[in-house]
Every structure is written in structure tokens, then in C-alpha cells.
Amino acid sequence: MDRELARQLKMAGFPVVRYQSGHKFYPNEAAASWSEAARAHGVTINRYELNDHAKDIESGYYCPNLSDLIGACGDKFARLFVMKSEWFAESDAPEMVATGDTPEEAVAKLWLLLRKLRTS
After folding, report:
1. Closest CA to 43 of 23, 58, 68, 69
2. Taking a C-beta distance cutoff of 8 angstroms, is the pair 110, 77 a contact?
3. pLDDT tens digits along 26-42
4. CB 80 within 8 A of CB 106
5. Distance of CA 73 to CAs 35, 43, 84, 120, Å?
6. Label partner for 109 (CA 20 to 30 A): which of 21, 89, 100, 116?
7. Alpha helix (H) ranges present in the chain?
């Protein structure tokens, strides 16, 4: 997942139950304790970051894993499949389709579509 999609999830209020080791996040642009490379390419969270950089993680852009994304879509999520290296995530009632280069990207975009529908 790229920085912009992670930012969109955060701005839309993606429900993060708890930050976990092994997940990726992008430090906030103003976080001085991170390198430019970390801000551009993200960081995989480990126990050290969870303990010593919790505020940076919370102010940054968290990348949920696939199960978190599917769970957030709830009963609207229908299926996920790949065709010719493009991933498709679909919902039922309403029928919607989102695509991405990875399964996480496709489901994140589906969650954003569903969220937009709920708030409009």
C-alpha cells in the first residue's frame, strides 16, 4: 500500500483497533525523528517502534493488513479475486468493485467506496 492510500484511509476514519508489530506505516511529514526514506517508503513496525514511537505511529499513516481491511468492510464484502495480475474486491448490496495492484490495495479502495456511500 502506498502512502497516499494509507493517508486516505486515515482521513476517512479507518478503524484501527490496535497498532501491531509487522504492519507498515508511513511517518507523518512533520515527524522529525524519521528519515526522508522512511517517510517516502514506509517503515515496518517492530516492538521498538511500538514502545518508543507510539505517538509517531498514531500521527502517521498506518497500513492495515488484509484481514483488518476485509473485517472493516463487514457483511458488505463479497469476494476478492485476481485476473491477469490485477486484484478485484467486490461488495454486495450495494454492488461495487475496486481494483488494485495488491489484494490489500483493492480491499482498501473498496472500504473507501463503502465509507463514502455511508457518509453521503
Report:
1. 23
2. yes
3. 998 887 778 888 888 99
4. yes
5. 33, 25, 24, 17
6. 21
7. 3-11, 36-41, 47-52, 54-59, 66-73, 103-119
Rounded to 5 degrees, φ, ψ at 116 are: -60, -40
- pLDDT of residue 24 exceeding 80, the answer is yes
Domains of the chain as residue ranges with CATH? 17-63 (no CATH), 66-119 (3.30.160)
Name the amino acid, one letter, at 58: E
Q: Which has more confidence, 21 or 85?
A: 85
> 52 pLDDT band (50/70/90 cuts)?
confident
Whether the CB-CB separation of 70 and 77 falls below 8 Å is answered with yes
22, 44 contact by CB (below 8 A): yes
